[in-house]
Amino acid sequence: MPLFSAFQEIFASPGVLWLIGGVMAGIFVGAIPGMGGGMLMAICIPLTFSMGPMDALLLLMGIHVGAVSGGLISATLLKMPGTPSSIMTTFDGYPMAAKGQPGKALSLGINSSLVGGLISGLFLVFLAPGLSYLALKIGPWEEFSLILMAMVLIAAIGQGNMPAALLSGALGMCATLPGKNPVSGDLRFTLGFDHLNEGFSLLSVLLGVFVMSQIIEDILSIKQKGTRIDLMMGSLLFTINEWKKNGVNLLRSACVGTWVGILPGVGASISSMVAYGTAKTFSRTPEKFGTGHEEGVIASETANNANVGGALIPLITLGIPGAPDSAILLGAMIIHNIQPGPLLFQSNADLVWGMIAGYFLAVISMFFVMLLSVRKLAQIINVKRQYLIPIVFVFCVIGAYVFNYRIFDVWVFFVFGLLGFSLRYLGIPLGPFVIGFILANKLETQLYSGLQLSDGSFLPLLTHPIALLFLVISLVMLVYSFLYSNSGKSKPSSGETTSPDI
Amino acid sequence: MKCLMRSLEKLCPHNMLRIKKKFSRIILVVGIIFMGNLLKADDYPARPVQVIVPTTPGGTFDKIARLIQRDIQDNQRLSEKLVIQNLPGAGGLFGTDRIKDATPDGYTVGLWNPGLVTSKIMGNADYDHTAFDIIGATGFVGLGLGVRDDSPFQSIEELITHLQNEPESIKVATNLGLPVHFFPLMFAEAAKLEFRFVQVGGGSKRLASILGGHTDLGQFSILEFENYRSDDPDRLGIKPLVFFTEERSSKFPSVPTTKELGYDLVMVESAFWLAPKGMSEQTLHVFRDALRGAMEDPRLVSEFKSMGMSAEFIEAPEVNAFLNDMRQLCEQIPEDRLKVTDVVPINFPIAIFTVTGACCFLLIVQSRKRNPTPTPASERSSIRTWAFLVVSGLYIAALPFLGFSLATILCVALSGFVLCGFRLRRPDIVGVATMTLALGVGINVLFRTVFKINLP
């Protein structure tokens, strides 16, 4: 099988060093809130000019895989997502660590990442061509109902305080309004600010709402002597029992992550959100989600790693990137004289198998690098807040700035940090805000595109089978979670809230 | 400086006068050399020239700039090298804004494509190519309209006939406001047809839309037609129906050109090199020579050809004429044909605001029933928080003025001070100092040298 010879080739060449180096760099950068894999990949492209195409792609692939996993570390230990894909991990990873079980949280994350990566790799190897043509069938109506389905998850993640969650989601949607009207291209709500022509940049908003608000929260509680978290972790590997217990969740989240990754234009944060919401809906103990439940961590981390492999599928088979970060891989391919497209497999079979083999190797090396280094990296939690906060803040400033080289984005980061903190203070959950922000724009665009195609009619929602399917699933999930929240949920006793301030 | 002088004085007071004299002499000499450099204007470039590319790194457009950058450096066509800065965003407008507003001293230039003209007509920009000094254009690639392999239309004539019988029956995947919208529209105007334009997005999305059967037609470059061609009946690709070029393409000999069909439309994708208005003729001359030389280099020519682009340097007057013609053609398109009719019954913003309002209301009603627990005030360090917010706010405001290093050093030192409770104990001083230097200086150096990124 050409895959095996590809493996051999990689090991024989210096490419393997680039790959592992990339994974390490990716994990490191991914763990720093403010800097993400996408940024590192973009700034490394010029560095790859003197390299051969395979080496360049291995390096970038390594960074890509590493960064998505690295985000786990700061999400769990600092409650600050290192990358947008780890936002959902903060919901359960951090409470688990705060309760004195950081090792367990990290172990869950690392093992889930491995599973997610490997399963999507299997999809990549065996089902790539078929899946990508299926993905092409996803038109505006299908995406519209898919996004509706994802939005139903606002209710699922709402944790009982439904009005607060809905308000949070609605505010997130409001935040996407400034900018261009997707259809006419007219500007709206920009108040004369040229900088708002493109709307608020996603990265600045996410960094602000999650990281900056957490920074403010941390400073406020800086005088409280935090309990020195015991970092004596046992083995970080899963036991057989743990595999059995979480098998279904792992498999399901990996599939969700892969499939969402295949859809062009949808990123890792959405796949982890969908997986999280699905896990919560189908869980036997949904009320534990958000308090440090292992199912939550597993769902999020499996999906965001599976997303990377999923995004590679349309890239390799069609030349269409499945996620923003894989678009960077596309750009790198072009610069290195590789022309992506349906013919890539025929014209450059060696390269394609090399990329697939590289992906598997990246996932496996990520696993080992994380296992070996996480104990050291976890020391970060015991660094004095006085030092940690300015460092994280400066990195966030850099990360927000480097995105588009504008100071405006840094201001957006700052202001949304204040906003995010106010939401926390009022007891409004942050998760739905982000969901609303990311999805509202897409929802609107897809609805307009769909209506343009159908000349104003909503009928395609019922006639297109895939769209109808997603619509039905949304309704089912809505009803399901509604029923569930009314039956076996414990009411918060006065003066104590069971759901944490996320 | 003063501390240094004072400590020197303490060491050897009688030498002070001598040292002071020496210093002033050195400063005088340095000053003269510096002034001399300023006066030597014909020594352009005396330092690296920044080239702004309004796309993310990677991709064809970026590649053009980098190929030329490498060629100029390898063959030393300029006395200094080119440094590429990627400024993506706003459909290229972030980058072109920056080029337009740069000092016209020859050390900031950039490049962009025909989107320069279309953005203004669409109303997204308030300037077009006339706001720049055009240096020239390097290479161009032909564009054409294409359909999916299994489309019922085998030729452009069939498509035209179909559209004449059933106007607006063909859906065109496009990105409103950009050349991929305008050029097909110009073709439609010339052939008296009516397309139905659907907003889809960038290149990959449009390809996906056509391959998925959601739209019927789209504009692509000759290179893209080559890449996405598929001879495999199991895998669908796209095929071109007509090209907007002077002559037929050698890769697609059976596809006609618009000229053959009787329409005087030649539309190309090209890289126009732009300079802020006001650059001296001499500087422009030097840069043009370098580009001309690069485009004649056999190695570069073959690289361009493999990208499907012609390798020519097109002089500024010709470029200006082309862009002016294009603008004229675009301006002739009636306004109502530009905008896509609003088919949506829902006004999104109003819907969202209503939902937000309803939720607020529900929330207020609900909170009257619950009693929130206040956390003890002594445990919350509000003063430090406010102080930090002030410091960090000032930091962001100061960044454009003080530069990254200085601003970061000040900010980190101050915030370290604030967070430690407004007093620094011995061990903290070391920690804060290391952090300050590492972040302020170290990071800046790292980004500048390794990644060639200029922080504010």
Q: Would you give an account of this structure?
A:
The complex is a heterodimer of chains A (502) and B (456). Chain A is mainly α and 502 residues long. Chain A has helices at 2-12, 15-31, 37-44, 53-78, 87-98, 102-136, 140-157, 162-176, 202-220, 240-262, 268-282, 294-318, 324-335, 344-347, 349-377, 385-404, 407-425, 431-454, 460-463, 465-486, and strands at 179-180, 187-188. In chain A, strands 1-2 form a two-stranded antiparallel ribbon. In chain A, a hairpin with a 6-residue loop joins strand 1 (179-180) and strand 2 (187-188). In chain A, helix 2 (15-31) packs parallel to helix 4 (53-78), helix 4 runs antiparallel to helix 12 (294-318) and helix 7 runs parallel beside helix 20 (465-486). The longest helix of chain A has 35 residues, at 102-136. Chain A is globular. In chain B, strands 1, 2, 3, 4, 5, 6, 7, 8, 9 and 10 form a 10-stranded mixed sheet that branches. Chain B has helices at 2-11, 16-39, 60-74, 93-100, 115-122, 156-165, 179-191, 203-211, 222-227, 281-296, 298-306, 316-331, 335-338, 348-367, 382-402, 404-419, 426-449, and strands spanning 49-53, 82-86, 108-112, 132-148, 171-174, 196-199, 217-221, 238-243, 268-276, 310-314. Chain B is α/β, with parallel strands linked by helices and 456 residues long. Chain B starts with a helix and ends in a 7-residue tail after the last helix. Classes of the chains: A mainly alpha (502), B alpha/beta (456). Chains A and B meet through helix 3, helix 6, helix 8, helix 9 and helix 13 of A and helix 3, strand 2, helix 4, strand 6 and helix 8 of B.
